[in-house]
């Protein structure tokens, strides 16, 4: 069995896979750890590659599930990374431009809002907005129907719109 | 920024909220909102597109590839080693072995179950038939003796009662008189007590209660 699919399909996706894991666990080290575990698992199961129809969607699904599992086990620490970032924001250097501070604050607000969304909405939003996936690809990754992806994305965007409108006023 | 552009972005954004935009159009929006000279009317929505752009730039740390390679090498070594090698060689045979085990197990259990059903209720415990018949005769004689003793005891009792010379007819008439007197009294009470012989219908009882 050749290793080609691993180096030509799976490995080039590593940054996108990492971003998805990072989006879920919000911890760089944990996300890298999850990605490494997942790549090793794929590597050691090369005889199964030919049975997997859509290797790309399979990898995204795998990393999603692994990240969610990890999130469940580190549930207590879950808020840590965000807290740390928030700390950065509070103790932001007085010299840094005002605009940057405002942007950081806004990003945090959006992230918080995103976190409060149900799993499907949150992941649909991430995969669409950040990874630029088509509805079909998202549906394959999340193992849900395309219609449900559209509905989830619609609700997530609606929530964001409400947040931004509220923030403005 | 012309009014036409403004209108275009407006419709694009509207379609974006309704999930009708294509990926290219969404990128267009992202590019538009990242402009430094973003008009004030569009400012409120900028954070969302800034956030997604920021998140898009997140990437793996530099040492990741090296660490992955090292981990892959390690994995290869352990795989080459003894780990699960027996299982891998016999993997195709495992299925056969499992089904054989199942069949043998079923066979054995069926064998035992049917054999158990054929078992006689009484199991031969004597080697010599003469000893057996002797023991059996002894046991039966014991039973016979016991029966005989009890029979004699019963006959003795009857005899004693006969000797007492009781007037059975007198006793019998005494018992019947008592019974008739009791039953008559009970019957008389049953008629009188509940509502003094008057009939009250169920419904009117209920009304009274209310």
Labels describing this entry:
heterodimer; A: 169 residues; mainly alpha; Rna Polymerase Sigma Factor, Chain: A; 9 helices; B: 210 residues; 8 helices; elongated; disordered C terminus
Descriptive report:
- The complex is a heterodimer of chains A (169) and B (210).
- Chain A has 169 residues and is an all-alpha fold.
- Chain A has a domain at 1-78: Orthogonal Bundle (Rna Polymerase Sigma Factor, Chain: A), CATH 1.10.1740.
- Chain A has nine helices and no strands.
- The longest helix of chain A is centred in the C-terminal third of the chain and has 23 residues, at 146-168.
- The N and C termini of chain A lie far apart (60 Å).
- The model of chain A has no long low-confidence stretch (mean pLDDT 81).
- Chain B is mostly helical and 210 residues long.
- Among the domains of chain B are: 3-56, no CATH class; 129-192, no CATH class.
- Chain B is built from eight helices and no strands.
- In chain B, helix 1 (3-17) crosses helix 2 (23-33) and helix 2 (23-33) crosses helix 3 (46-56).
- The A-B interface holds A 14-15, 18-19, 22-23, 28, 32, 35-36, 39-40, 43-44, 103, 106-107, 109-111, 126, 128-130, 132, 134, 150, 153-154, 157-158, 160-161, 164-165, 167-168 and B 16-19, 23, 26-27, 43-45, 47-48, 50-52, 54-56, 58-61, 64, 67-68, 71-72, 75, 79.
Fraction of residues in helix of chain B: over 70%
Whole-number radius of gyration of chain A?
18 Å
Strands of chain B, total number: 0
Q: How is the quaternary structure best described?
A: heterodimer
Task: Give the helix proportion of chain A (percent range).
Answer: over 70%
- Record field, number of beta strands of chain A: 0
* Class from secondary-structure proportions of chain B: mainly alpha
Order of helices and strands of chain B: HHHHHHHH
Largest interface: A-B, 37 and 29 residues
Low-confidence stretches of chain A are none
């Amino acid at each position: 069995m050749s290793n080609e699919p691993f180096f030509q399909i799976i490995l080039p996706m590593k940054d996108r896979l990492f971003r998805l894991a990072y989006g879920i666990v919000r911890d760089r080290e944990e996300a890298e750890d999850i990605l490494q575990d997942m790549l090793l698992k794929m590597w050691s199961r090369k005889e199964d590659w030919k049975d997997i129809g859509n290797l790309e969607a399979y990898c995204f699904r795998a990393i999603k599930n692994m990240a969610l599992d990890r999130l469940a086990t580190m549930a207590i620490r879950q808020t840590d990374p965000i807290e740390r970032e928030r700390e950065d924001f509070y103790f932001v250097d007085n010299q840094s431009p005002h605009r940057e501070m405002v942007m950081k604050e806004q990003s945090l607000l959006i992230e918080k809002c995103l976190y409060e969304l149900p799993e499907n909405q949150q992941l649909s939003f991430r995969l669409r907005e950040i990874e630029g996936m088509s509805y079909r690809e998202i549906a394959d990754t999340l193992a849900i129907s395309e219609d449900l992806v559209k509905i989830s994305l619609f609700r997530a965007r609606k929530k964001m719109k409400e947040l931004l409108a509220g923030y403005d006023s | 920024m012309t009014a036409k552009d403004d209108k275009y972005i407006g419709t694009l954004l509207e379609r974006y909220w309704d999930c009708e935009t294509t990926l290219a159009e969404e990128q267009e929006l992202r590019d538009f909102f990242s402009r430094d000279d973003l008009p004030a009317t569009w400012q409120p929505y900028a954070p969302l597109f800034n956030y997604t752009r920021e998140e898009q730039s997140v990437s793996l740390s530099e040492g990741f590839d090296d660490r992955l390679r090292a981990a892959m090498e390690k994995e290869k070594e352990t795989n080459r080693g003894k780990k699960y090698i027996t299982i891998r060689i016999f993997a195709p045979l495992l299925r056969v072995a499992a089904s054989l085990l199942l069949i043998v197990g079923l066979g054995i259990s069926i064998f035992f179950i049917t054999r158990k059903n054929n078992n006689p209720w009484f199991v031969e415990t004597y080697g010599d038939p003469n000893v057996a018949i002797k023991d059996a005769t002894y046991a039966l004689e014991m039973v016979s003796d016991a029966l005989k003793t009890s029979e004699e005891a019963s006959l003795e009792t009857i005899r004693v009662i006969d000797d007492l010379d009781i007037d059975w007819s007198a006793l019998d008439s005494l018992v019947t008189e008592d019974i008739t007197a009791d039953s008559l009294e009970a019957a008389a009470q049953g008629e009188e007590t509940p509502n003094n012989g008057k009939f009250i219908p169920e419904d009117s009882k209920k009304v009274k209660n209310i």
